[in-house]
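Re: export button greyed out
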Amino acid sequence: MSCASGPGGGLRYPLRCREPWDEECEKEAVCVIMCASVKYNIRGPALIPRMKTKHRIYYITLFSIVLLGLIATGMFQFWPHSIESSNDWNVEKRSVRDVPVVRLPADSPIPERGDLSCRMHTCFDVYRCGFNPKNKIKVYIYALKKYVDDFGVPVSNTISREYNELLTAISDSDYYTDDINRACLFVPSIDVLNQNTLRIKETAQALAQLSRWDRGTNHLLFNMLPGGPPDYNTALDVPRDRALLAGGGFSTWTYRQGYDVSIPVYSPLSAEVDLPEKGPGPRRYFLISSQVGLHPEYREDLEALQVKHGESVLVLDKCTNLSEGGLSIRKRCHKHQVFDYPQVLQEATFCVVLRGARLGQAMLSDVLQAGCVPVVIADSYILPFSEVLDWKRASVVVPEEKMSDVYSILQSIPQRQIEEMQRQARWFWEAYFQSIKAIALATLQIINDRIYPYAAISYEEWNDPPAVKWGSVSNPLFLPLIPPQSQGFTAIVLTYDRVESLFRVITEVSKVPSLSKLLVVWNNQNKNPPEDSLWPKIRVPLKVVRTAENKLSNRFFPYDEIETEAVLAIDDDIIMLTSDELQFGYEVWREFPDRLVGYPGRLHLWDHEMNKWKYESEWTNEVSMVLTGAAFYHKYFNYLYTYKMPGDIKNWVDAHMNCEDIAMNFLVANVTGKAVIKVTPRKKFKCPECTAIDGLSLDQTHMVERSECINKFASVFGTMPLKVVEHRADPVLYKDDFPEKLKSFPNIGSL
Amino acid sequence: MQSWRRRKSLWLALSASWLLLVLLGGFSLLRLALPPRPRPGAPQGWPRWLDAELLQSFSQAGELPEDAASPQAPHGGSCNWGACFDTSKCRGDGLKVFVYPASGPISETHHRILASIEGSRFHTFSPAGACLLLLLSLDAQTGECSSMPLQWNRGRNHLVLRLHPAPCPKTFQLGQAMVAEASPTVDSFRPGFDVALPFLPEAHPLRGGAPGQLQQHSPQPGIALLALEEERGGWRTADTGSSACPWDARCEQDPGPGQTQHGETLPNATFCLISGHRPEAASRFLQALQVLAALQEMSPARVLALRQQTQFLWDAYFSSVEKVIHTTLEVIQDRIFGTSAHPSLLWNSPPGALLALSTFSTSPQDFPFYHLQQGSRPEGRFSALIWVGPPGQPPLKLIQAVAGSQHCAQILVLWSNERPLPSSWPETAMPLTVIDGRRKVSDRFFPYSTIRTDAILSLDARSSLSTSEVDFAFVVWQSFPERMVGFLTSSHFWDEAHGGWGYTAERTNEFSMVLTTAAFYHRYYHTLFTHSLPKALRTLADEAPTCVDVLMNFLVAAVTKLPPIKVPYGKQRQEAAPLASGGPGPRPKPQAPAPDCVNQIAAAFGHMPLLSSRLRLDPVLFKDPVSVQRKKYRSLEKP
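Workaround output, generated via the alternate export path:
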């Protein structure tokens, strides 16, 4: 439409509309529609001047009506739609009070008490989950009902705010399914987060009448506050048969290892209070106890610690003399001094988390949030998510009988380890404690990991804070291993049409004793490779691979023909390397199979004037790259180059027809964290930058291009992975005063 | 007429536009008026309640902290670490283990296991001073069963070690004793208290053990993806190509030719499916979970990582009975240590927790092995440790050469001879500490607390090095902090004629050891040398001083599974005044230690850990035809 011809290219300045109807033209959408009518106008311009004023008014009214109608239609069409999609179009707007009521007869069945010997392979039906390509379990949530007994008395509060949040989180996640027949895990909407708010027997009856209950198989219950006075059981008392329990406050006696999931007790303060992250390091108090309602024996022990160690220990209690009772939960007192809770936790290095009536304490979450290292004194307590989280890294567990020694135990921890723990504590809170959603998703992930163990999240992914994940390198070839010499290497020669030179390279390389196969990558689509009979006759298999496109990355494709781990990439004009040099290169690669082992070395330098990286090929004392015109490397790097190269580097290389070797150097250094190994002395090399081009200017162009590559790749990798070293590898007796004929590799470094 | 026509067209236009309006507007109005119906296909999620904000919290304010407390820990029927183990006896230097002597005649295996524990750093001879009392329950075949030991005390602080499933009837209640056994059942196993052991064959090597058979990192192309254990002990393999359903009933009746391998040999496959004692259950399992499909989807990176990890775990913890027992003790020691236990990284990456002592440090950065995983670098300075044996001349020239290095942080002189300490030492800017040694050769590798850097340059008073050589060697060491970087080398070889290992210090095309009279290595190896080597080996080194080099090289090679690194050494001195080795008196050439030394140490290690290297690391421009002015380490090239 002509309207869209403004300078912005879009609808922002519909020029033609603006001129006649300047005032009205305020909203873009309006403009569009007006434009339509203008177009109408333009079609019959001759009529209008001849019309009488009356008719003109008539026409204008008519068009205004049409216009208004169109606007209204537009509003109806688009406006309400956007409101509803943001408010979830599909979901019925209802009140919790309107949910259907279910009456439970007094004699309806009750599930078995709960089987302590349950394990995933005995009580869980994995066949419901099946194999699925995404390796994700499907979770179904039962519809919310209100359960009443024979007398119409409710069994419990219908649903708590937290349980509603929890079910919402599951429903919004990838795990959710609304198809009960495809589900692998069932979550009842019966809220059992707090045992004290429900009637045990009736709740059990409500569970038993769920449509897929089947003895609780594959059902998951969430409970944070188990047990009740006086003896406070450490697991939910509601009979639940085989159902899995995600519980806060398990003890070793009630926790079914590998079946139940130990979860945190959610602290409502997580959402209410914003404690900004405080860097690790020494804090005002060494040890703090801020729990209220502690048993007098524990309080005595703690106060004894305070007496012994003075200022560095702070033992707080609830405030008795505060006027406003409502806020007392956020205040703590020591003698007459008043402290804000949980802010005071940020002032301490270690925070005591003692067993109260229950093992699980919501306070643990506050402590972690404050970046304070929890000192957990609660024998037999199963820490939250301990199946996957490494609590040794974030907490100190002290047996109750050692409580009096707690100070000396903590003092023996090196400062570096304490700082590590402070960071880790805060990270655990951020990742797994801070919201009901985080708790729910971590629980489902743990169950998911059990069902699809081969796709499980690794220890590092669960436990390493993002900073560590970024800074560290996990070498894909981490096992120290010297591959057997007998395996040999596969030489891959990339060629276009220099047949004569290619044949010479083939003949030379075939003299290397450890060569086991030779692969020629024929990169010329317009010309056929020479006939079979014309190729040099060599002692190892020779294969020619024809490529579909003349791309440099074809050299690094993981061809099925490569059967050895070692690959020698070699250009079709590298005829100056001796057989001794190549064999020695292979021997060096065997000792460093995770590195690029090559002949001509290059260096990257920081250009302080230009403020960027520069490529250097002069005679330097350092190397950080080797050219892949002749280099040994592990074939796994071919896979990485072809399928895992970050960003658009591969395309960049193919488009520029340059720098594939620099890209490979970046890739290997980035993934292994190690430097290249340059082998044997420098010799006059036929390489792109020293021979193909005569004359200085072209040479310089080439250097500029290579420098550009380094800068481009460094920005894609987000770092400079190349490592600079000052050594190269020579045979043990190289240039030693020793009879040449006794040396293993005499012909090294000859020009 | 014209006006009528005009009016007619007007009405037409008007009604048309109204019709349009009604159609479009009415439709939207209709949609508003009717309650929305869910779109088919889209999942209907948990409702957004109108009154969600009004819902009550699961715990009322004040309820959480106001709980009444009861000081009794919850109790159950079985043991856990806190309840049944008394750590108060384990203060000080870690886990001390007392082993009950066998009553009556014992088998050779039993005897050797006892000897192995007695030689370890855990052992103590006094049951009173021990924190753990170990009861070996070994001799499955002799049918001999242990009786109730003396200090039983309901089994408190006891570990009952069952390497093989014992046919013994339970002669006494295990009570509070920990049990370490193979394949414990879920019902009897107490997590965090008992220890699960691998199921060991009768013929499992006692120490050392064969290294893993993995020869290459990635799987060989063309080998089977999965091998399934069969009922009669053979293996059946399935390849990716035949995976449509090789496991259904039909396939089982007609296994293709060559698919079944019989006998003891392990199958040549990427994955092996082990199903305990019920192979028939495994094939059902396969059908249900479609293991094959899952394996095929696994990325090459993951397969690579898993392959390597199996090898590492085998080598570190499984390959010999001794390793299994030491691992068990290490696990228990970690429980006692609490916060100073091994971090997970140390257990799970090479060289493993048995070789990365938590008594040295719990920070991975302090070890030479984990710099990559930690994103850290070894420290940029070294300490020179000069051993002065007889005749006891202060090594003045050497001190000056070393002190000239920009990387040197301190010099330590280990005075280890009969002469009195000289009163004056050369003036250097470098801090110089003199340690009065105890005249034992193994003192050279004692973890002196005065050594404050990661790197140690170990020297003999008669060594002769230039500052350039020291500088270059140190820069190389920084790239390989877990290896030894040395100047002079020697080799081991298999001597067919004598049927044993031989040793040569001749210059050859390869080497497997560097002389510690001039070598860089990480200070952690002093801790390992002193605390993890069996006492017998350190005694051997003291008695035959030339063995100490070999022993240190064995130790480092066993830990790293890599050869040492050689750097260039000035030629003229190499001929005229070679580096001396440990023994007394100057010699023209480093004297070969008695060949027995290599064999004795190899026997104690249980295998030959030394590996040969064929390369030397030189400066990049070493002896290149370019102006000497451009070279950083030019004095290395002086003729």
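Chain B touches chain A through 134 residues (CB under 8 Å). The button fix ships in the next patch.
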